């Protein structure tokens, strides 16, 4: 008898917990799908994109549709997985697209200008702070598949809202 009374008391509560858990899981699944396929918020830290972005950390909105539909153009600022360490996400400017010829200025002790042809399926990425950036001058052209998204808006700091 006590078991029956216990079931009558806790069954509606259990059902409510289950229903709310399903809604909670659905919400986070939708949020993850949005982040992976549409847009995400990201923070950029480091000196390689000075003066465009602060070295202490600007917060950016990165849209993913441009990379998915191959709508990246020269001059766009993108987020990409680093070819040297795919766990690291880098923020760089696109200087060359596949088939284009890029003029590479001298870096860190290399005193000559080079001309590089960007191969098919790749882009040439470079930081705005050329004297302090690890980029395509170090690791070569970046496969298009490593691009994670195009920076479309800086939202932090509040006085620095900028569209890209």
TrEMBL record:
**InterPro entries, per this entry?**
LexA/Signal_pep-like_sf, Mito_IMP1_subunit, Pept_S26A_signal_pept_1, Peptidase_S26
Keyword annotations of the record: Hydrolase, Membrane, Mitochondrion, Mitochondrion inner membrane
Lineage, top-rank taxon, reads: Eukaryota
Active site: residue positions = 48, 92
User: Which Pfam families does the record associate with it?
Assistant: Peptidase_S26
Query: Which residues fall in a coiled-coil region?
Result: none
Q: Which family does it belong to?
A: Belongs to the peptidase S26 family. IMP1 subfamily.
Name of the protein described by the UniProt record: Peptidase S26 domain-containing protein
Q: Which organism is it from?
A: Adiantum capillus-veneris (Maidenhair fern)
């Amino acid at each position: 008898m006590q078991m029956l009374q216990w079931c009558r008391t806790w069954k509606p509560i259990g059902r409510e917990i289950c229903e709310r858990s399903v809604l909670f899981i659905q919400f986070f699944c939708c949020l993850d799908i949005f982040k992976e396929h549409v847009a995400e918020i990201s923070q950029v830290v480091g000196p390689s994109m000075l003066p465009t972005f602060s070295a202490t950390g600007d917060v950016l909105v990165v849209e993913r549709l441009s990379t998915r539909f191959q709508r990246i153009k020269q001059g766009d600022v993108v987020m990409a997985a680093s070819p040297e360490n795919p766990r690291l996400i880098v923020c760089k400017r696109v200087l060359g697209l596949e088939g284009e010829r890029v003029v590479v200025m001298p870096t860190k002790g290399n005193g000559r200008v080079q001309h590089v042809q960007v191969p098919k399926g790749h882009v040439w990425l470079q930081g705005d702070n050329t004297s302090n950036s690890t980029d395509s001058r170090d690791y070569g052209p970046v496969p298009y598949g490593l691009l994670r998204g195009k920076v479309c808006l800086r939202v932090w700091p509040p006085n620095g809202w900028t569209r890209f």
